[in-house]
Amino acid sequence: MAGVELRQLRYFVAVAEELNFGRAAERLLIAGPSLSQQIKVLERDLGVRLFDRDRRSVSLTPAGAALLPHTRALLERADDLRRRAGRLSGSRAVRVGYVNWLPPDLASRTAAVARVHVDAWVAPSHTQAARVADGSLDLAVCWVRTEDLERLGLRAELIGADRVHAVAKGPDTADVRASDTDVLIDDDVTAWASWNVYAEDVARSTGSRPVRISDGGVTGPAFFDHVRRGSRPVLNCPKGQTTSLPPDLVRREVVAPRIHWTWSLVRRADEDRDGVLAVVDALCHGVGDLGIHATGSWLPAGDPFASPE
Length: 309
Prior knowledge:
Helices cover 39% and strands 21% of the residues. It has 10 helices and 15 strands. The longest helix is centred in the first third of the chain and has 27 residues, at 62-88.
């Protein structure tokens, strides 16, 4: 037992709950072969086989089924210890950056586990992810792709999701197909790098028509001017739209497919500080899938939470 790690026990619980190594690896944000290898190491260290597996199915062995409730209880005690240590710790605050959205109950959910400082520098998603990678931030709420996580050495947990809608000239408020909408792509690749990547994928995958702009009008009053000048509904960017909808424009829900934008809580892959990990647990535990995997929903193929084909 001396070699058993809590991380491996979490892997065991995930596979036991999913009964599928691929889904468990996706949930844990690790590679499938790595997960399989860690389970084999755990079985070796425990001296028992936990799973029966072949090419078509995975099932718990009697030993695995007997150990599962004890493992869950052990992990709960470890999490409780981490929370208590966080309350006693005098270490520096956990630094959290964001783009334009944070969980509204962030302060109340993290108060018991760590001191949290929300960084005042609001920056684009790619900038905030890079700041986590270089240590300027401990955590950031932003939009990332799987390749960004791999390139920067980060891990992500789902913390929020927006259903992307369209804005149109009134009075018609009926649902609109994605292929009957426009999506704006701005020439400023510094400010709008993440949105542009996302928007281009939306256009390729859903048939929405890409419209090139150069005035930063992806959000704000300039966005509404684009809607007024065009003939089709325009997809609304959830990244920074804080301006209220003018009375001459209407919101229309997008269907076929229902388009989603995810918010990730990212941290460094090698992060091991209890305070940071406790904040991640406090903010992401019980979030669920927020509807992003419902029938008829769409995410970019590179989204870390997209279902495998």
